[in-house]
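Work Package 4 report. The design task specified in the project plan requires that, given a folded chain encoded as structure tokens, an amino acid be chosen for each position. We show below one input record used in the internal validation round.
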């Protein structure tokens, strides 16, 4: 058991160890303050940090160091900085940046799956570079959509606000048409909205109307698409110029049989 623990520790990169120590310090601080939800996020982060090791050990897939660093930074930025540090609310573009990176990473995973199968003697397939690129793009977008389903479910079922709301200044909706016809009613220049409970004002939204998540959802999917397109293009040229694309190879996970895994 101790030998396995030593072996697992040796697989950790220096960058992962540094981040893990930093997260552990935050976790201990949160534990002393009684912030148990934050402690849970720290534990989850430490577990997610082992994704590259699990991929190598269980799936026999080796991640290039550059891709591994991006994954570790993504996890740290999402869980520690985003959630515990409230970067999602303090920095308007933080969520957008992470969804763009997510689109890139998920396309990399989808690409690796297809490319590994494409080059495995166990599978009799030989897909064209453009098809592999399209599949990696579709895989990334599917993961992006499923994540938005998860955010919506969290907001509806347990009252979270994962789909961040935006204050808007104009409404165009057929729901406001008193005739019930499918004609849009436009209300421009909204300067404030009063929220009522039992006929009494309980909250006033200054400078506009509160959009409930749809802008955030569409923005997330759009930037996910951008990240997916970027990697799909990289993946395409990687296959076309196999073993020549030095830049692309930095982001392509490789299948490593038992004798090559490390």
């Amino acid at each position: 058991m101790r030998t396995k623990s030593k072996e697992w520790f040796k697989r950790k990169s220096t960058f992962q160890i540094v981040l893990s120590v930093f997260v552990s310090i935050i976790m201990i601080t949160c534990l002393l303050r009684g912030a148990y939800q934050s402690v849970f996020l720290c534990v989850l982060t430490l577990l997610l940090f082992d994704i590259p090791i699990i991929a190598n050990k269980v799936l026999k897939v080796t991640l290039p160091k550059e891709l591994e660093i991006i994954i570790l930074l993504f996890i740290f930025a999402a869980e520690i900085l985003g959630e515990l540090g409230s970067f999602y609310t303090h920095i308007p573009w933080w969520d957008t940046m992470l969804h763009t990176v997510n689109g890139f990473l998920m396309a990399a995973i989808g690409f690796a799956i297809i490319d590994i199968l494409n080059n495995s003697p166990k599978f009799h397939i030989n897909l064209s570079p453009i098809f592999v690129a399209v599949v990696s793009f579709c895989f990334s977008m599917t993961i992006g959509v499923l994540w938005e389903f998860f955010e919506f479910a969290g907001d509806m079922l347990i009252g979270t606000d994962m789909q961040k709301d935006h204050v808007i200044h104009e409404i165009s909706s057929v729901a406001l048409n008193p005739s019930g016809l499918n004609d849009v009613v436009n209300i421009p220049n909204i300067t404030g909205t009063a929220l009522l409970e039992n006929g009494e004002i309980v909250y006033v939204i200054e400078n506009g109307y509160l959009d409930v998540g749809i802008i955030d959802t569409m923005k997330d999917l759009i930037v996910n698409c951008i990240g997916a397109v970027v990697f799909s293009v990289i993946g395409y040229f990687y296959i076309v110029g196999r073993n020549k694309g030095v830049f692309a190879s930095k982001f392509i996970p490789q299948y490593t049989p038992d004798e090559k895994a490390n």
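The longest helix spans residues 129-157. Validation will be extended to a larger panel in the next phase.
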